[in-house]
Amino acid sequence: MDIEKAKQKIRKLLALSKSPNENEAIAALEKAKQLMEEYGLNEQSSIFTSNKIKATKIFTPWRTIIANAMAWLYNCYQYRDKNDGTFVFNGEEFDVFMAGEMYTYLIKTIERMAKQKIRKNAKYTFRKSYKQGIASRLYDRIMELGELCSWAPQRETKIKAITDYVKNQIDLITNPQKKKVKINGLAASRGFKDADGISLNRQATGSGGRFIGYS
Question: Looking at the domain assignment, is residue 172 inside a domain?
């Protein structure tokens, strides 16, 4: 069994260790401890995983806004890999899956709206500002919806634990010097307004009925 399969096995055993059946719970916990010792793992390194999502090598503020919102909503720690520009979500397996799914969905939606609503000969700054406006409004909506999620009370504690773990595992170098972003106020306002038309009531494949929120 390779280490990733061992981690998956340990995660399942740790979940079983919370079973109301006392004998089953004790047996699962003992087996999990055995595997952790065998593979030199601890509970955190067994539970937490990462999900790398393709982005752009050039720093793009509006994409980062969406990535930050998804990380907060789904109890993840997120950073941008300086080598390839990817966003890396860190956390529990299901949470990083959902964060990646919803990030991809929203990015594609914003790109599609920009193509549909902004004229082809519009300047780069205007088009970029429109996307920034959409992302900013979505961020606000997601923050509001996030407080209503059933897992909201545990969010800060979980994110802190994941952040501490990730910082102990890798040397985090996010974006160094960031250039000042030029924004077209009219385009940003249009994007901000149009963002209210994006549904956040979307169930991701394999999510087991967990939604981002309500439209």
Answer: yes
